[in-house]
From TrEMBL, chain B:
It comes from the Bacteria. Residues 105-135, 197-226 form the 4Fe-4S ferredoxin-type domain. Keywords: 4Fe-4S, Iron, Iron-sulfur, Metal-binding. This is 4Fe-4S dicluster domain-containing protein. The keyword Repeat does not apply. CDD domains: PsrB (cd10551). One of its GO terms (molecular function) is 4 iron, 4 sulfur cluster binding. It comes from Persicirhabdus sediminis. InterPro entries: 4Fe4S_Fe-S-bd, 4Fe4S_Fe_S_CS, ET_IronSulfur_Cluster-Binding, TAT_signal.
TrEMBL record, chain C:
This is Cytochrome c7. Keywords: Membrane, Signal, Transmembrane, Transmembrane helix. The lineage of its organism: Bacteria, Pseudomonadati, Verrucomicrobiota, Verrucomicrobiia, Verrucomicrobiales. The chain crosses the membrane at residues 12-32. It comes from the Bacteria. The keyword Transmembrane helix applies. Gene3D superfamilies: Flavocytochrome C3, Chain A.
Length: 422, 318, 220
């Protein structure tokens, strides 16, 4: 969306219901066509994602049939790769909205162009979150037990019900904002701020809430000392607000290369400054948490010691967590380089390192040590099974599929190359 | 995500009426692709059709235990008996024993006497119709080093003549907490605390998210990783809806102090089998009960008191 | 770019959001707290409420030895069964050797008996006037069926625990209105000559899940 095209747009005007009925139908029709038409690269990419997603679907179906015994989880480590991915993706969804804050609060024009990329990422991430939760359920067929009215919803006591509310609310908010902006743009009108600005502000608060509530899922459990830390929610937010921008910078670079959409330098610059700050805050919090654990010692430190150094020859997590630590530190150093946003290669490497580092830190590095040692101090290790890897890869592929389609529809509309009135 | 840079509306999108040959081939290819995709999806999801056999429409639509009236519950229990007959070949009777007024169960365990023989864990396994292959039991016995109450120095996997002179033994099972964290966290109210203090699970309502298992500080909850397999002749036919009936796949379960026995006035299976008489069970509301005498005469403690769960399971030395 | 006004707007927006969040959280924790408080009160009352159990309809039965003990003669009868003899078979005519101070000195029928019960001697419990009875330290003769009385003379606190139901194994009903109970006698579990509970092999090794076992800690 360039300023030039904005000037061409008609102001928001009232329409009859029948106008909306026809033009919204046309909008959906064209969206479908945009989503299914593209270059060969596009088809190859989509077919690849579909195949991976199908492998995941098959693995999940087998898991449902045979039971969770096909996973490597046990009564000692009762959550694994699925919940690890879920936690990370909640962060990614929250981080997607980091673009919105400067765009709407600081009226950063360059960010306006790219805000929709972040909001679409939030949608795709939440879709993946919900899929991971369903993959983790022992009885997905009983999902309806959670629905209000027909089922039983243990609100407000269970933090999980809060999480269900905030995640779905966040999904609806972002669907509304993106849908409204795209449709308005499609019919060639200026969006009416009344219909989206309040929601944008709500979604900013909501983005913080989804990750806070997800952290509360874990830190509210008194029986798990590794999670039972007040620092968990702030750390979640800090990591989310560096992984989210990192992913978006990568996407922006791809968009720049593959489409005609103009990505303002200012957008990347703002995102980099956000990352510079959040990653340092995260490192500070990590260090203070580790200091508390290791200097105090005792039962609280057992899990952290296991995670970083292993325990009696059991060291399944050691390579993971050191990879994460090293990646994050290298990325921090790279980001400190002056004008890093002008050095595409350095920036790309830093973003990839941050993304992987945070994925481990917020995933395997957070969920698994909560269970090792167990509450009775038994030592049972966890290494994900093939089925778990397949399902996780499938869900990621499905999420990327959703994101690709969303971008594929949104970009031509936003660059005014597809208009309902032309 | 690639948008080719051709002029006109939407580049190569077909609305622009580009070359009709390409248009046709493309449509055909898309059609083939979509068909293949749907077929592949159906194939990928095929295992679900096999799984469907092990569940039923009635089970799917069944309401929460506390919303079933007497007749509905009777119908459900009849259905479960029939399913057990069909799946396991065993004739069992599933009942619904209600909590008795004026009763609140308490359990105490004498750590000076326990020798760590694990017969309680075995009795639990048999009484509660656990999956045989998993060797599941609601009781885990920890071998603890004398001079420490720290469970970090405990070990459940010992295999030598017991009791060892420098060790003591601590069986841990559900503490039937007064303030159970596992009940708070359940998103669907599939687990709750009954009036007699027993924390139960509606196995037909649980969605299997395992949040309660993460929340329990005593490792008291178990998940059915697969459909339990038990030889017909080993099935305990005296079953109740909320306790030892054979659990479905993919749901949580836990110790209920054998409520199918204790609500009929009997002792729990783990107590009866204890060769050293380390266990004391009874009604906390009856001032003359043995359990109340333990509380009055012994110095008792509870596990992880600092967590505020307020267990109804007490340990003591004498 | 962000001027002062915009920054001020940001601060206000964030402040409002945070206050909203805090109010929600406080409200929720208040609801949860309230619930817990109620439960607590019920509990506190509950434990003080006296529950009148009604008359016990069934009895607590304590196991008793069936008769006088017999000693294996070491011989077999025609059916291959061990021939058991009563104490008086020999002791009617034979006085015991008062010089015996340890179980290794025992001979004949008593050879091999393990004795590990403090500083006691045979006649601390056995009655030299009638070997088919026991004798308390105050001289009172006790039948073998009432052996617990003999144990209780030294093991007072344990006896008190037993009487309160805090010691000893049992089967049956906790609720005596609905069924009886059978309790063990001292010598059901404790060998009077070596009362320490013997070592046994544990049964039923713990598993983590089907196909998985616990990794043992080796350094303890």
């Amino acid at each position: 969306m360039s300023n030039h095209s904005e000037d061409n747009m008609k102001p928001d005007q009232p329409h009859s219901a029948s106008f909306h009925a026809t033009s919204y139908g046309k909008f959906l029709r064209i969206a479908f066509r945009l989503a299914t038409t593209g270059s060969w690269t596009f088809y190859v990419w989509m077919i690849f994602l579909t195949c991976v997603a199908l492998v995941g679907a098959n693995a999940w179906a087998i898991q449902v049939r045979d039971g969770m015994i096909r996973t490597a989880m046990t009564d000692h480590v009762s959550w694994g790769l699925y919940i690890a991915n879920f936690t990370f993706l909640v962060g990614l969804a929250a981080g997607g909205v980091m673009m919105v804050i400067p765009a709407y609060i600081y009226k950063d024009e360059d960010m306006h162009d790219t805000v929709i990329i972040g909001e679409l990422l939030a949608i795709a991430s939440i879709v993946m979150c919900l899929m991971f939760v369903i993959a983790d359920l022992g009885r997905p067929d009983r999902f309806w037990h959670m629905l209000p009215l027909v089922g039983k919803f243990n609100w407000p006591i269970s933090m999980l019900t809060w999480d269900v509310i905030v995640l779905n609310g966040y999904l609806l908010l972002n669907l509304h904002i993106c849908g409204y902006l795209l449709y308005k743009r499609f019919i060639g009108e200026k969006p009416n701020p009344k219909w989206y600005v309040p929601f944008v502000f709500i979604s900013i608060a909501w983005a913080i809430s989804i990750h806070t509530v997800t952290a509360f899922l874990y830190c509210g459990l008194g029986g798990r000392p590794f999670w039972n830390s007040a620092l968990l929610a702030p750390r979640f937010l800090a990591t989310a607000f560096c992984a989210g921008p990192a992913f978006i910078i990568l996407v922006l670079q791809l968009i720049q290369r593959l489409t005609s959409m103009h990505v303002g330098k200012g957008a990347v610059k703002t995102l980099v400054s956000i990352m510079r700050i959040t990653i340092l805050i995260n490192l500070l919090m990590l260090v203070s948490e580790l200091f508390t654990e290791f200097y105090t010692g005792g039962a609280h430190a057992e899990a952290a010691i296991y995670m970083y150094f292993g325990h009696n020859g059991m060291n399944a997590l050691v390579p993971w967590v050191w990879t994460s630590a090293i990646f994050v530190v290298i990325a921090t150093v790279l980001l400190l380089r002056p004008n890093v946003y002008q050095h595409t290669k350095t920036l790309t490497v830093a973003c990839i390192l941050i993304f992987i580092g945070v994925w481990i830190e917020k995933g395997m590095g957070l969920i698994i040590p909560g269970f090792i040692p167990s509450t009775l101090h038994e030592w049972v290790e966890y290494v994900p099974s093939a089925i778990e890897w397949k399902v996780s890869a499938g869900i990621w592929a499905a999420g990327l599929l959703v994101y690709t389609v969303l971008l594929k529809v949104a970009i031509p509309i936003f660059t005014d190359r597809v208009r309902g009135d032309s | 995500m690639s948008e080719t840079n051709q002029g006109g509306c939407g580049g190569d999108c077909s609305c622009s009426g580009g070359g009709s040959g390409g248009f046709d081939r493309r449509t055909v290819l898309k059609g083939v692709g979509a068909t293949l995709g749907v077929a592949a999806f159906a194939k990928a999801m095929a295992p679900l059709t096999e799984w469907k056999d092990s569940t039923s429409v009635d089970e799917f639509l069944q309401m929460h235990y506390r919303e079933l009236d007497k007749d509905q519950l009777a119908a459900v229990m009849k259905r479960l008996e029939d399913e057990t007959k069909a799946d396991y070949g065993a004739d069992v009777s599933i009942s619904d024993v209600k909590a008795q007024k004026g009763v609140k169960f308490g359990y105490a365990l004498n750590l000076s006497v326990c020798v760590g023989c694990r017969r309680c864990a075995k009795a639990c396994h048999e009484e509660n119709n656990h999956d045989r292959a998993s060797g599941n039991s609601y009781i885990r016995v920890l071998e603890m080093t004398k001079g420490s109450m720290d469970m970090e120095h405990g070990n459940a996997d010992y295999n030598h003549a017991v009791p060892k002179s420098d060790k003591f033994y601590m069986p841990v099972q559900c503490q039937q907490c007064e303030n159970p964290p596992c009940v708070d966290v359940c998103p669907v109210e599939a687990t709750w605390k009954e009036d007699d203090g027993i924390v139960v699970v509606d196995y037909n309502w649980c969605i299997g998210c395992r949040y309660c298992e993460a929340a329990c500080p005593y490792h008291a909850r178990r998940f059915n990783w697969n459909k339990p397999e038990i030889p017909k002749e080993e099935i305990n036919p005296d079953q109740s809806y909320l306790s030892n009936r054979i659990r479905p796949q993919g749901v949580m379960e836990k110790c209920t102090f054998c409520l199918h026995r204790t609500r009929k006035g009997k002792m729990p299976a783990c107590l009866e089998v204890c060769p050293t008489g380390a266990r004391v069970f009874g009604n906390l509301l009856d001032p003359n009960s043995e359990i109340r005498k333990v509380l009055a005469q012994k110095r008792v403690f509870v596990l992880k008191e600092e967590l505020g769960t307020r267990p109804n399971f007490f340990y003591f030395f004498d | 770019m962000a001027n002062k006004q915009n920054a001020g707007r940001l601060v206000i927006a964030i402040a409002i959001l945070m206050i909203g969040g805090i109010i929600t959280v406080l409200f929720t924790s208040y609801i949860i707290d309230e619930q817990e408080r109620e439960e607590y009160e019920i509990y506190e009352d509950g434990i003080q409420t006296t529950w009148t159990p009604g008359e016990a309809q069934f009895e607590v039965e304590i196991n008793r030895p069936t008769g006088v003990p017999m000693v294996d003669s070491g011989k077999k009868n025609y059916d291959g069964e061990a021939v058991m003899v009563r104490c008086n078979t020999c002791h009617d005519s034979k006085e015991m050797n008062l010089l015996v101070t340890s179980s290794s000195q025992l001979k004949d029928f008593h050879q091999g008996l393990v004795f590990n019960h403090g500083e006691l001697s045979c006649l601390s419990c056995h009655n030299a006037d009638n070997y088919e009875t026991l004798r308390r330290s105050d001289g009172q003769v006790i039948a073998f069926q009432n052996v617990m009385e003999l144990c209780g003379q030294c093991h007072g606190p344990r006896m008190r625990d037993y009487k309160s139901g805090l010691h000893g194994g049992m089967v049956g009903h906790w609720d005596l209105q609905r069924g009886g109970r059978k309790r063990n006698n001292c010598i059901d579990c404790h060998d009077p000559h070596a009362p320490a509970y013997p070592q046994v092999m544990p049964v039923f090794p713990p598993k983590v899940r089907a196909g998985k076992t616990v990794k043992t800690e080796t350094n303890h």
